[in-house]
Amino acid sequence: MKLNIKSLLLFPLLSFSSFCSAAQFGSAYGDVIEIAAGGVGAGAPAKNLMYFTVSGTSTFATCANSSSPHFVINNEDGGKTMVSMLLAAKMAGKKIHVAGRGTCTYISGHEDVSLIYID
Fold this sequence. Notes:
single chain; 7 strands; about 25% helix; signal; alpha+beta; CATH 2.40.50; seven-stranded mixed beta sheet; about 120 residues
């Protein structure tokens, strides 16, 4: 049986995605349609955060605000890798899979990101 990297990465993502749909975690699949960085709202302090939306059907944690559902990445440590992947997917027109953490720690109403996978 021949396995490749994509198969090895996709199985845990799908397994995690199935788990997320049963729990209070968000997930999404589609094109990156909006990216923003910094604080939220007029006069908000600048933060080391990037938030984005994904086309297609998305589910979000119960803490997420349904009127403006964004995912949030803290642009520190491992978050820098996710930010790079997000920008690369946007520039290349690739679809992404996103799994949330089920928390809205960084920006109230916007779900924290746990995993990003580029198709």
